[in-house]
Amino acid sequence: MKSKVGIGLIGLGTVGSGVVRLLRENAEVISRRLGAEVVLVKAADLDASRAKALKLSKDVYTKDAREVIESPDVDIVVELIGGYKPAKEFIISALENGKPVVTANKALLAIHGEEIFTASEKCGAPVGFEASVGGGIPIIGAIKQGIAANNIESIYGIINGTSNYILTKMTDEGREFDDVLAEAQGLGYAEADPTFDVEGIDPAHKLAILANIAYGTPINFGDIYTEGISNILPEDIRYARELGFKIKLLAIAKLRGGEIEARVHPTMLPEDYLIAKVDGVFNAIYVVGDALGPAMFYGRGAGDMPTASAVISDVIDISRDILYGGNGRMPVASFRNGSRKKLPVMPIDKVRCRYYMRFTALDHPGVLSKISGILGRHDISISSVIQHGRDAGSAVPIVVMTHGAVERNVRKALAKIDEQDVISAKTVVIRVESAE
Ligand code: HSE
Description:
It contains 15 helices and 17 strands. By secondary structure, the chain is of the alpha/beta class. The strands form 2 sheets. Strands 7, 8, 9, 10, 11, 12, 13, 14, 15, 16 and 17 form an 11-stranded mixed sheet that branches. A 6-stranded parallel sheet has the order 3-2-1-4-5-6, sandwiched between helices. It is elongated. The model has no long low-confidence stretch (mean pLDDT 96). It binds L-homoserine (HSE).
């Protein structure tokens, strides 16, 4: 039996450097768990200063990723450069060389996952992607193995630390989105271009991966309804609190009547729900299985060492198959290839949930009955109303919380309401996840 497993790393950025450090710092516990050493035999990055900072030897460091893929001493290729090109080519060519791959590349898997999974099956080489969702939280392993006996009823994820940090600051300090974002950028918590994080694209990538392995279906990332947090206002956070709710950017997947509900948007949650208490940069994934009931996975969704922890867990898992046999035991996408089937994603119009609505309406007798009449005619039932203060003749906020309603009806009703003379601004609407 081999006494060593050789790792080849492509990318020595934050996560890649974390992997190098963790392999060194925890070498003993890793080899005791595995029964063999994990050795970094090749590492590629265009920036030589990164290799120097890590004190990588000349034998290990290369500028050329092909050297990593082609080295006979590399048993597992770890791709950590991110993005689509050339990451996809590197992964496919490693698989075609018969080498297992470990990647943290959620954007790539969300868009090209099927091509990569198919190549993995065809080449008989596994792909590990634990680090692609929730950073260090072992949610992929939990879905593929820990809760494999369950039909998964629903998944609710706070899977973007940047937006959770911003919403937490806005909630705790009553500040505006732009103000907190600028501060987060100054502190290095948010990217210079924050679009992927704050507009829900990054969590939608991660949701595509989760829904794929939870429901055994290829998910078209473009079918996931995505809305970010950049339009959330402090006053809606205040009204939410008054009603006993918090606003979180939630990634939601459910199986409903043969369709997958997959959506990412700001969501009001009762403040006593466990997931509503997940604050700051932390991530959490709340999963409901039919046998298990609810379970929540909580931890750091980013950062060098937490993400390296997830990367190396895949390296150890794959190494066990290399050392003791069993390649092909775990299907790459959790379900056996022949038993995966394409399920339609439910259009957002068909989604049913509760809604928070903030109308800006003239303070006249009869205005509320006009609003509630239109809601009623669209089969939308009101659960509570708040109106503070009086300002006869000018506009005031009227906040309405509804019972469960269908999105198509909500859109039609709001279009009708917003064209009324008594309404002076576009109505704000936020979806709510809670019991009636
Ligand atoms: N940019 C991500 C976040 C971390 O803010 O959570 C990496 O997935």
